[in-house]
From TrEMBL:
InterPro entries: DUF1289. It comes from Vibrio aquaticus. PANTHER family: DUF1289 DOMAIN-CONTAINING PROTEIN, OXIDOREDUCTASE. This is DUF1289 domain-containing protein. It comes from the Bacteria.
Amino acid sequence: MDMQHQVVNPCIGVCEADCHGKCLGCGRSRQERYLWYRLSEGEKREILNREGVEPLLPVGDARHSI
């Protein structure tokens, strides 16, 4: 596959989940994070295009900067 079209892992290294299992760093569910490298490019795009999949921490949060 062309590297230009690969879906990049949205992980920002925070890896903390809220009470619903949604990651505070990338907004994905536990299952989505666990299965990420097994998913097809299309499945990854569907997850990232879904409403609400984005970092949940405010940009200035100390945990956001690594």
